[in-house]
Amino acid sequence: MAGETLGLVGESGCGKSVSALSLMRLIPDPPGKTVGGEVLFDGEDILQIDMDDMRRIRGAKMAMVFQEPMTSLNPVLTLDRQLTETIQLHLGKSRDEARKDAVDLLVRVGISDAERRIRQYPHQFSGGMRQRVMIAMALSCNPQLIIADEPTTALDVTIQAQIINLLEDLQERYNLTYLFIAHDLSVVRHISDRVAVMYLGKIVEVADRNAIYENPQHPYTRALLSAVPIPDPVLDAQRERIILTGEVPSPLNPPSGCVFHPRCPIVTDDCSRVNPEARQVLPDHIAACINVPGYGPY
Q1: What is the largest CA-CA distance in the chain?
Q2: Where are the domains of the chain?
Q3: Residue 242 carries which DSSP code?
Q4: Any idea what the Cα angle at residue 143 is, between residues 79 and 68, rounded to 5°?
């Protein structure tokens, strides 16, 4: 929904970033390829359109904020050049108009003395300021959707909070829709309206953030949340911790049936045979587990 934030969580290597790049069609084909499914954006399956049309959508309607700005910003070009050319390309504005917009963007994301700083290079900015620049670039063409791929992971806690507050402020001001990807469950709970949980490339649970954190249905979600520290040491000591045994299977050779069954604490014989689809198990709450109450016949 417009103006909503969907948080996407899961352990490292589960496919969160690959999913984000796939949504933007930034994975080279070959070696990457689409094996199934669809991505509906404004009622259109963007996996089926040609790359010229996709380039027009990318940046203008959907944009991405990456985890490490220094790998996304060109180190030999000033911010002026990078921001201005993006605006000219997608919005067709003159050089002077685009530069004025670029300065305004830096002001909007909290970079002071923007007229001077826009002439600087990425290495002249701190990590937090570079991430603000990336957010400004994402905003430059007034997109409807921003995909934020672990945008605070490389930052210290204080700067993380500033970036999260900035994203929330911009969302409220411009009615932006976010896909917020992170492995920090506390950050995801703070910023998200709904949360999706991924395991080995598959979404195993989706619900309102409070439902996910207070009444998780999928056994993987329960295990994930049981590992989150609780500030109160007494409550933390009393809490049940779910220990998952074994290694995460290779996505190149996933197990038969449910991909989680080799590590699942509530596994049954059918789990190695049935690959569960995500179904509604509670109002506005879906899960992909045949052993969840309310899943129904399979």
Answers
A1: 67
A2: 5-192, 209-287
A3: -
A4: 45
Phi, psi of 269 (to 5 degrees): -60, -35
Task: Determine contact, residues 112/74, Cβ cutoff 8 Å.
Answer: no
What DSSP designation does 296 have?
-
State the DSSP code for 22.
H
CA distances, 254 to each of 13, 14, 239, 248 (Å): 14, 12, 32, 9
Q: Quick one: tokens of 211?
A: 């439902």
- The residue written with tokens 């995500």 in the block is 278
The answer to whether residues 4 and 177 touch, using CB atoms and an 8 Å cutoff, is yes
Q: Which homologous superfamily does the CATH classification assign to the domain defined by 5-192?
A: P-loop containing nucleotide triphosphate hydrolases (3.40.50.300)
pLDDT in tens, the chain (298 residues): 789 999 999 998 899 999 999 999 998 888 888 888 889 998 899 999 999 999 889 888 999 998 888 888 999 999 999 999 989 988 889 999 999 999 999 999 999 999 999 999 999 999 999 999 999 999 998 999 999 999 988 788 898 999 999 999 999 999 999 999 998 898 999 999 999 999 999 999 999 999 999 999 999 999 999 988 777 777 666 677 888 988 899 988 999 999 999 999 999 999 999 999 999 999 999 999 999 999 988 8
Strands (E), 26-171: 40-41, 44-45, 62-65, 145-149
What is the full DSSP assignment across 87-156? HHHHH---HHHHHHHHHHHHHHTT-SSHHHHTTS-GGGS-HHHHHHHHHHHHHTT--SEEEEESTTTTS-
